[in-house]
Amino acid sequence: MPVGGFDEACYPGGSFVLDDSGRVVAAAPLFEDSLLVQEIVRGMSLPSVADHELPVYNREELLWGSLRLHLRDAVAARGVSRVLVRLEDDLPSALLALLAVDALGPRNVLGLLIERDDAVTPQEAARAQARLDAIRTLAARLNIRLIERAVEADRPLQDDAGAAGAPASRFRDLSSSLCVEDTANALSAAVIASLTKTDYAFAIGLDPAHPGLLAPFGDIYLSELEHLAKYRNGLSTVLPEHLLGLSSVERALDVIVERAGYNAYPDAPYAERIVTLIRRLGAPMVDAVLEAVVDRNLSLEDCPLYDREPEAIALIGLLVQKGESRRRRLPAVPVVSARAFAEGAWPEQLAWLDLGRNGADLLSVEALAKQELERLEVEGTDQLDRMRLEVMGLLGSIFGLSPEQLKELSSDGVASQIRFTADDAEVQMRNLMEEASALYIDGSPFFSKN
Predict the structure, then answer these.
(1) Rg, the chain, Cα only
(2) Domain boundaries, the chain
(3) Is the Cβ–Cβ distance between 91 and 243 less than 8 Å?
(4) How far apart are CA 97 and CA 76, in angstroms?
(5) How many CA atoms lie within 13 A of 311 on its CB side?
(6) Residue 18 β-bridge partners
(7) What is the signed CA dihedral for 294, 295, 297, 302, rounded to 10 degrees?
């Protein structure tokens, strides 16, 4: 298999050959095509590769190189040469722009800055200006072209009572998505999204028509981007320091959770309660819970901190479940984890919760049908027993039977005799009906012809 990305899979290279004793006798390089030929004779000792010549499997290095290869090949497979990245003053979008530069070169990467005029107070205006300055500085560091566009201020829908019928974030996300698509079409560029696996888990808060050909970080949790960014910045200092700490990850999680909570539950006090409970866990613990539920298929009761924060853990599982149908319409994702969302086999209504199966194998259609028939058979037998007891009780009250007589009538032997008698009566009734139908000629009684 050639090195590179194919659909959702990525092959980074690095194949190796082991002899009978488990020593590496040949190894191919990582992230480049090569032909590895090694002749092996059983029972013959071969010279092994020196330790200093073996590739070092650093997780961040392997992950970054794999994503770079996959992005390069995914863009080429679509017949385009340029990509568009919407830039925010946050870690996911900045790191995605850097990944695109490494994969395609700075001339093939376009940055998009969306400016809004929704600042009301001087403090908000200062924060908005600081955001614009940070994005422009990042684009200059990456040496990419930056397109700046302005959209109108947020104007949420109003209901009959005059109150906001939808959060302002919904209008903001929709207008931004339209702006991204319009810019990409005008410049003949493919959109790549800065969504992480945490975003996909809380997909209920995302626009169903989220623009993007691909989301390279869609199978990587938000908190892991911090380590990936520090690794890449160690090669060359590009990303600003304020994006490399845990505080940047926490700010990004706040946006994700707030968007999911208010989109899932329009009731503002209830949504605020949900957001507060989940935020209290912190980004590393939220991602640890998601990893337990999604990647390891654990039940909610087995998740970290369930004994201390059962409400927050249950809410995370509920939001993951509610976002299943929306998650399937988001951009494609390269699979780099033990279990990606794309591998889900559950119907949309069941989503990613195993509903108490605790990791057991999924039932086939045949096994599910057999299980359902057995359940119906048991329920039918139980219902017949209840009906028999009720009928016996009614007969006892009519004929004045004692409890001992009722018990004897309800025994298995008498019940079998009653069923046999009932079946015999049914056969006799069917025979009588057939004899009566034989007296009809051309659909009319015989006496009608006299």
Answers:
(1) 33
(2) 1-56, 60-156+166-343, 402-441
(3) yes
(4) 17
(5) 8
(6) 24
(7) -90
Q: What stretches of 23-107 show up as alpha helix (H) in DSSP? A: 59-77, 91-104
Range scoring the smallest mean pLDDT among 51-55, 196-200, 309-313: 51-55
CB atoms closer than 10 angstroms to residue 133: 11
Q: Of 214, 43, 211, 47, which is closest to residue 114 (Cα–Cα)?
A: 211
Beta bridge partners of 16: 27
DSSP state letters, 97-156: HHHHHHHH-GGGEEEEEEEE----SHHHHHHHHHHHHHHHHHHHHHT-EEEEEEEPPP--
**What are the CA-CA distances from residue 234 to residues 55, 228, 229 (Å)?**
19, 10, 8
Q: Which amino acid is at 196?
A: T
pLDDT > 90 in the chain, percent: 34
Residue 357, CA distances (Å) to 169, 310, 361, 368 in order? 37, 19, 8, 13
Q: Can you give the pLDDT at residue 299?
A: 84
Token readout for 338 is 């033990």
pTM to 2 decimal places: 0.72
Q: Do the beta carbons of residue 63 and residue 228 sit within 8 Å?
A: yes
- Cα 380 vs. chain centroid, distance in angstroms? 38
374 burial level (CB within 10 Å; 0-12, 13-18, 19+): exposed
Residue with tokens 């079998």: 416
Work out the burial of residue 255: count CB atoms within 10 Å of its CB; fewer than 13 is exposed, 13-18 middle, 19 or more buried: middle
- Higher pLDDT: 62 or 45? It is 62
Residue 367, CA distances (Å) to 102, 362, 370, 373, 374 in order:
49, 10, 5, 10, 11
Q: What CATH homologous superfamily does 60-156+166-343 map to?
A: HUPs (3.40.50.620)
CB atoms < 10 A from the CB of 169, how many? Answer: 16
Q: Which amino acid is at 180?
A: V
pLDDT in tens, 397-444: 776 767 776 666 666 666 566 555 655 656 666 666 666 555 544 444
Higher pLDDT, 395 or 256: 256
Query: What's the pLDDT band for 356 if we cut at 50, 70, 90?
Result: very low
Token pair of 164 as six digits: 């906001």
